[in-house]
Amino acid sequence: MARTQIEAAREGTVTDAMERVAERENREPEFVREQVAEGQAVIPANTNHEALDPMIIGREFATKVNANIGNSETTSDLEEELGKLHTAVHYGADTVMDLGTGSDLDEIRETHVDYSPVPIGTVPLYEAVKRAESPEEITTDLLLEIIEKQAEQGVDYMTIHAGILAEHLPLTNGRKTGIVSRGGSIMAKWMEENGEQNPLFQVYDEICEIFAEHDVTFSLGDSLRPGCIADACDDAQYAELDTLGDLTRRAWEHDVQVMVEGPGHVPMDKVAENVERQQEVCDGAPFYVLGPLVTDIAPGYDHITSAIGAAMAAQAGAAMLCYVTPKEHLGLPDEEDVRDGLAAYRIAAHSGDVANGRPGARDWDDALSEARYEFDWREQFRLALDPDRARDYHDQTLPGDNYKEARFCSMCGVEFCSMRIDQDARESRRDSRSSQSPKGSEQPGDAGEMKHLESTTDLESSPAAEVNRPPVGTHESSDDSGDENWPDRAVEGTGDD
């Protein structure tokens, strides 16, 4: 029996996970199988993750969004991390990465896997540093031990920083911000102190064997991604990318799924170039992008600076976007930061799908626009990306239920509301014509007159993928507390750590 999704796909088998993905994407199961078999898409689905609702990442499918969560030594415990997980899924995260570096990492990770319906990703190198107590003390045996343990726990994909090599390090000397990837800096320090090649590169085939056994997907880390726009597209970044292309093909030889990470901070005119180069070098393996941040001037607003680049990357062919929160470069995000980051990135992902003409992707936009024009406030809120926030903002100035029927908002008021004026003009002209002419008769000037507008979008029959139709959080009920299987139950009896 095939052990991995790509192995089954290559053998011509449509797995249960592929069937479920086809349903969620409104695509044919055979097309899903072909994309996985060719390495153009991945279904991160560890065989030990029983709570998983399978999803797919690939440029031919709806653009996905990842949310990073995780504790530190000084911030967050199990209960808070579960709250972040709940918030992430509630606001539309397609995957969640646990980047914790604090206490109780195993307990938090296992609980996430137990309850999360979306794939869980990790960076095992972080745990290795914590166990070894300093980067230079890490051993290949320790790395393999941790990777195997996390695979057995049910982690669906892991960032492996195997692409940064000793010969790449001198290429970073002319940079403004050096090596900004945590994993990249750890591996660079290890190589400098030990005078040897990257240990993850040395045991890469052994890692592939572990991944094949549990169907863990590679997320090949971009250790030398640029940390400012001045460093974008330099020799260091592209040298590592070439290595990642080689590592992609080596993983495929082991029947292991692969996606590739990149690129960090990139000016707008270089975003498409980065996506296109990765697709060429890595033979079309899905590109999983952080940002990219298109300017460096806005600490506190980097969910915006990066969402601009993310939308451009999605249009250019990036398969998954790793969100950035307002706390980027400043601190550990809390639940509200997770919410803001996901909103920015769901907008970027959806915008990319609309621009790329994904089937039905624009239907959601059209349905909301029609509700807005008709002053159907309740329907606007229902269709909004974040219904609670849209309703709250409206209620701040017009809180009464009677204003949910109003034909204006507080920005323009009654007198200057353009849509009310437009509607009244159309209605007045129609009423005037009806009283003056027999029904169905034509009058001079019909072709140039403003006519009544009809709402025609039916989201129930839309061919759009699940992520391009409301509600955004598709894994739980509309009740804010979540359904009976959600993590709040996992907290019972655990106490604070």
UniProtKB/TrEMBL annotation:
Catalytic activity: 5-amino-1-(5-phospho-beta-D-ribosyl)imidazole + S-adenosyl-L-methionine = 4-amino-2-methyl-5-(phosphooxymethyl)pyrimidine + CO + 5'-deoxyadenosine + formate + L-methionine + 3 H(+)
MF GO annotations: 4 iron, 4 sulfur cluster binding; phosphomethylpyrimidine synthase activity; zinc ion binding
Protein name: Phosphomethylpyrimidine synthase
A Pfam family reported for this protein in Swiss-Prot or TrEMBL: ThiC_Rad_SAM
Gene: thiC
Cofactor: how and how many bound: Binds 1 [4Fe-4S] cluster per subunit. The cluster is coordinated with 3 cysteines and an exchangeable S-adenosyl-L-methionine.
HAMAP family recorded: ThiC (MF_00089)
Protein source organism: Natronorubrum halalkaliphilum
UniProt entry keywords in alphabetical sequence: 4Fe-4S, Iron, Iron-sulfur, Lyase, Metal-binding, S-adenosyl-L-methionine, Thiamine biosynthesis, Zinc
